[in-house]
Amino acid sequence: MEVVNALGRRKSAVARVFVKEGTGIITINKRDLTNYFPSTILQYVVKQPLAKLEAEGKYDINVNVVGGGFTGQSQAIRLGIARALVKINPDDKKTLRSEGFMTRDAREVERKKPGRPKARRRFQFSKR
Fold this sequence. Notes:
The chain is an alpha+beta fold and 128 residues long. The chain has one domain: Ribosomal Protein S5, domain 2, CATH 3.30.230.
């Protein structure tokens, strides 16, 4: 099997995922998964599509991720892995979609408006 690549995005994070047959090693920005994401919750998020398809030891995954924070990056990687697994086996798409792994979460941070402290927050109103 040749290398299959896919793209995953979330907030301002972009993950390029490369999947090939192997022993289950996940490398993110040339670092091990446990080293890149010390939090077990974020490690769990990254592995969710593999766990759902029971393919945790079947593929070696190499990821380049830029932008965003830890949560956005982990969710971008999850989407990229799910898309790559569907390219490998299109029959898995229904299973992954039912769990919500195939949907791009389009929520972005709203911009700050002039004359306000944040995007929607207003300064305290004073009548007198």
